[in-house]
Amino acid sequence: MDMMISNLQQQRQVTEQLRREAGVKRISVSQAVQDMIKFISEHQRDDCLIVGFSSQKANPFREKTLPCRSKLPSWRHSRGKLIIREIETASNLSSVNKKAVYQTFGQPTHLTHPHRLSKGEIVPGIQQEELKLRRSRLVESMRLFCSNNELNGKTLIVVIPSSYKKYMTEKIPYVYRQNSDFLYLTGCMEPDSILVLISKNDSFESVLCLRGRDPASELWDGPRTGIDQAVELFGVDKSIATNSFEDFAHHLMKQNRDCMIWYDFANEIHPDIHKTMQKFASQTKNKIWESPRPFVHQLRLYKSKAEQKLMKKSCEIASDAIKKAMRSSRPSISEAALQAQVDFECRINGAEYLAYPPVVASGPRANIIHYINNDNIVNDGDLILMDAGCEYHAYCSDITRTWPISGKFSPAQRTLYEVVYSVQTDLIKLCSKFPTLNQLYEVMGRLLAERLKESGVISQKVPPDEIKKCVSQFCPHHVSHYLGMDVHDTSTVPRHIPLEPGMVLTVEPGVYVNYDNRYANPEYHGIGIRIEDDVLITHEGPVVLTEPCPKHPDEIERLCCT
Fold it and tell me: Which Pfam families does this UniProt record tie to the protein (predicted)?
């Protein structure tokens, strides 16, 4: 990356020098350009290029200045460097204005987006060295697996594809989202890409397959990184064109007859790559096939300090957005308006988009767990259950809050809310003892049964031996899931393992009282409440990343009345 760093200040000085020479000394623009090229050459600059000039009249200098490229053959358009795209000149040559820097990578870099990425980062917040370490740890874990299963000495070939571009209708694409496993290991955000890891003995080689440069496609869809820059940008050992992958893989397997191939056949991430791998599986014999997915998920389960920082920011953005939605809510507002406000606030504060379609459920619609229609008007006296989160530089937040549209809970609403609030508070405290997610769920069931009975929500007519059984009628979902690059993160990691420092999980008890719930007293019918926070496990205890979002009933009432 250091070779690609552009000193923008020095470029500005060059431009200012050109302006002075063209305006003050009244020399020809052509001469000024030649002087500038000489200056850049003397300073061994290979990260900028004069494309041309424009003026109010036909430009007599364009044909003279453009051939200057040939004098410096290392200045290639495809190298992905910063380019001085155009300099406008007035007819009297008194002012010269450098236009915006042009991006020639397939994704933001710290050269093109210094407001988003720092030096050395491949994706915001994640350094190239961390990505290399992830790949190394993945191979180490696979080698350990082989050692424990008497598979030593085999060449490991790991194939992890990117996502592909999906279309909602002809020529209209969905917003592209990268395959999380691929992004975690490469930092590459381009579609139609493949990571191949080849491990022999104690060493391994990383190969990144990318789309080649294509001016016609790039005209419509934006620049690509291309093959030449992949090694330098992503820190891999080698790069090839994606359309060469089949030949490359065939040659690789032919060279390494005693190999173990790691590819996830259970999940079709990229149809074309999947077909190619199925073809290899049908043609090759005496090969061992294994899925890399559980091994990648095991790495992703533990968040590094850099990842924790990104997740904290994601949670802060979503917390602030929901907080503002609480403050602005009022009777007769639409659920859609509240959704739009949260979406807007998340994006304006740096999130790329919402992490999932949000639930904005008013009144009895809160009893529909995944209600995402959000097409009703909020009536006076209703509760609003909002489940929303954002994705900030590939890391997700997931928050649920419930609040009264009128600014004050009714007695029944308050009673039910305090039950959920007290249960959630106790579950978060329990995280300091490193339980499993399943143990959290068991404790939630027991606490809900006790407190629903104590508070009078459950009818006195319900026999004691039925109280525990009826809890599933009040809360039909699990209380927790892992959180990270995906909302329901690392899906191959079981819920029966103890929590450890570095893990992030949700804690989200809820109580939903449908009108046909025969266990609840009638005054609670139609009320649905859930409280969800994102919790980072540390040696010192659980850290609630979503703490900025109010949840105490008194705090919520104060906020809704402001």
Answer: AMP_N, G-gamma, Peptidase_M24
How far apart, in whole angstroms, are the C-alpha atoms of residue 141 and residue 447? Answer: 39
List the beta bridge partners of residue 510.
530
pTM, two decimal places: 0.83
Q: Report residue 175: phi and psi, to 5°.
A: -60, 130
| Domain 121-300: CATH architecture, name and number where available | 3-Layer(aba) Sandwich (3.40)
Helix (H) or strand (E) holding 110: none
Looking at per-residue confidence, does 247 or 469 come out higher?
Answer: 247
Structure tokens at 203: 């060493």
Please tell me the distance from the alpha carbon of residue 415 to that of residue 411, in angstroms, as a whole number: 6
Which pairing describes strands 203-210 and 238-241: parallel, antiparallel, or unpaired?
A: parallel
In our burial notation (b when 16+ CB lie closer than 10 A, e otherwise), range 82-97 reads bbbeebebeeebeebe
Can you read off the two tokens belonging to residue 100? 């915006």
Return phi, psi of residue 13, to 5°: -65, -40
Can you give the residue ranges of every domain in the chain? 2-98, 121-300, 305-560
Largest CA distance in the chain: 98
Task: Count how many Cα atoms sit within 13 Å of the Cα of residue 398 in the half-sphere of its side chain.
Answer: 24
Tokens 């002087």 found at: 35
What is the band of 468 on the pLDDT scale with cuts at 50, 70, 90? confident
Q: Closest Cα partner for 123 from 7, 239, 233?
A: 233
Span 256-280, average pLDDT: 94
**pLDDT tens digit sequence for 70-81:** 333 333 333 343
The pLDDT value recorded for residue 465 is: 84
Fold of 305-560: Creatine Amidinohydrolase (3.90.230)
Q: How far apart are CA 31 and CA 34, in angstroms?
A: 5
DSSP state of 522: G
- Token readout for 44 is 């061994």
Instruction: Say if residues 226 and 212 touch (Cβ distance below 8 Å).
Output: yes
- Cβ-contact 506, 398 below 8 angstroms: yes
Rounded Cα–Cα distance for residues 516 and 494 (Å):
34
* 3-state SS class at 485: coil
Q: Give residue 211's Cα distance to chain centre.
A: 22
Q: How remote is the C-alpha of 156 from its chain's centroid? A: 29
Closest by alpha carbon to 281, among 249, 311, 324, 312?
249
**CB burial of residue 28 (10 Å; 0-12, 13-18, 19+):** middle
Alpha carbons 337 and 340: distance in angstroms, whole number: 5
Q: In terms of pLDDT, which residue wins out, 38 or 277?
A: 277
Q: Which two tokens stand for residue 432?
A: 């300091």
Beta strands in 263-377 (DSSP E): 288-290, 353-354, 359-362
**Residue 379, by phi and psi: left (phi above 0), alpha (psi -120 to 50) or beta?**
beta
pLDDT tens-digit map of 312-328: 999 999 999 999 999 99
Task: For residues 499 and 406, give the distance between their C-alpha atoms in angstroms, rounded to a whole number.
Answer: 39
* Exposed/middle/buried for residue 202 (C-beta within 10 Å: 0-12, 13-18, 19+): exposed
Return the half-sphere exposure (C-beta side, CA atoms, 13 A cut-off) of residue 76.
Answer: 8
Whole-number pLDDT of residue 550: 98
pLDDT band at 533 (very low <50, low <70, confident <90, very high): very high
Half-sphere exposure in the Cβ direction for 473 (13 Å, CA):
18
